[in-house]
Structure formats: structure tokens, C-alpha cells
Write a structure and sequence with these properties.
With 203 residues, the chain is of the alpha/beta class. Helices cover 38% and strands 21% of the residues. The protein is built from 8 helices and 5 strands, in the order H-E-E-E-H-H-E-H-H-E-H-H-H. Helix 2 (77-91) packs parallel to helix 5. The model has no long low-confidence stretch (mean pLDDT 80). Residues 27-133 form the Reverse transcriptase RNase H-like domain.
């Protein structure tokens, strides 16, 4: 093994064991979603604030980015930022569905997307797409320097590969015994539970 490979191996080991490490999602804590869009791509970072070593620490749960499509290149800055939000909500639906979360953006128009009275064709479609998150989402405007994570992701997006190799993964969640106890008790209180059991017995 050459010295160059040894140094590369050490660099990888160091990157995997030092901050910022990816945090496990915790649906009891509100998420923070940083978004940014530019002429090159869309970028977003999903964060949580967890207690680590007895102090509140904000860290990433996942990063995501993609290139701008040719037809999207005609969008203005406001439309691009709204597109980024809708795209990221679709990609992170597993994390955000039913959860409280805060969207951090440097574009004021994103803040008005939920309640826009006269949206154009694109905005109307996006407005409808995010209605399911109404009541769970708070959109906050902050200067771009506050969220360099998403800003960097939107400018250094991965190139589109000529061939696509599917990546399969599994997400593991530790569910305590209390969950199953609550599940059993709720079924006992369900008045039509006996009908459900009879129907299941038939099959």
C-alpha cells in the first residue's frame, strides 16, 4: 500500500468518526429543513437539535441535492426556491409526514407560498402539494449565510450519471415495548374489534 493510499484511508476514517455525523431521526423533536436553490441545482439539509454530551447540539439527519432540469432553468429565483421546497418535502416525506418542522430559507416568497391568493400555474400546483403539511410547518426567512449547508449543496450538485445503479437500504428504528402495549390496549377499546377478528379468521 502506497503512502498516498494510507493517507486517503486515514482521511476517510477521520471523516467517519468526527463531526458532523448524521443523527438518527427522532420524531419527538421538531426537524429543521434548510433549503436553497440556484441556477445550477437544488439543495437541502434536514437537521435536528439533540442533547449530546449534556448540551443541545444541532446536526444533520440527511443531505440531498440535484441538478436543475432544462425546463426549470427558465424559472425565476423565487420560483426556484419554491420548487426546492416542494421537491425536498416529497423526498423527505418519510421523515416529515405528521411531524412538526421548521423550513429555513433566504427567500421571502417561500414564506407566502402557503397562503398566496393569486399564484401562477406552477405556484398553484406547488401550493396544493404542500397543503398536507399545513399546521405542522413553520417557514422562517434567514440570511443565506445562516445556512451554508444547503447553499453549498445547491452549487455542488452531483452530475447526472449515464447509467443509474439502484441503491437499496434499510432504515432501522428501535420501538420500545410501550408502543406495542398501547397498540394492544387501543384495539381492546375499539368497539368493532370483534368484527375485525372474525373477518380475519375467515381468511
Amino acid at each position: 500500500m502506497t503512502q498516498e493510499r494510507i493517507e486517503a484511508d486515514e482521511k476517510i476514517r477521520k471523516s467517519l468518526t468526527e463531526e458532523p455525523l448524521l443523527l438518527m431521526p427522532d420524531w419527538n423533536i421538531p426537524f429543521k429543513l434548510y433549503i436553497d436553490a440556484c441556477g445550477d441545482g437544488l439543495g437541502a439539509a434536514l437537521h435536528l437539535v439533540q442533547i449530546i454530551n449534556d448540551k443541545p447540539t444541532e446536526g444533520p439527519v440527511c443531505y440531498i441535492s440535484r441538478q436543475i432540469k432544462p425546463k426549470e432553468a427558465r424559472y425565476g429565483a423565487s420560483q426556484m426556491e419554491c420548487l426546492c421546497l416542494v421537491w425536498e418535502l416529497e423526498k423527505s416525506h418519510y421523515y416529515l409526514d405528521g411531524s412538526g418542522f421548521e423550513v429555513i430559507t433566504d427567500c421571502n416568497e417561500v414564506n407566502s407560498l402557503l397562503n398566496m391568493n393569486t399564484p401562477n400555474r406552477h405556484m398553484l400546483r406547488w401550493q396544493i402539494a404542500i397543503q398536507e403539511y399545513r399546521g405542522n410547518v413553520t417557514i422562517v426567512h434567514k440570511a443565506g449565510k445562516i445556512h451554508k449547508n444547503a447553499d453549498g449543496l445547491s452549487r455542488y450538485v452531483p452530475l447526472e450519471a449515464e447509467t443509474h445503479i439502484p441503491i437499496e437500504g434499510i432504515h432501522i428504528t428501535d420501538i420500545g415495548t410501550e408502543f406495542f402495549e398501547e397498540f394492544r390496549e387501543s384495539y381492546k377499546q375499539y368497539r368493532n374489534f370483534h368484527i375485525l377478528t372474525l373477518l380475519l379468521d375467515e381468511y
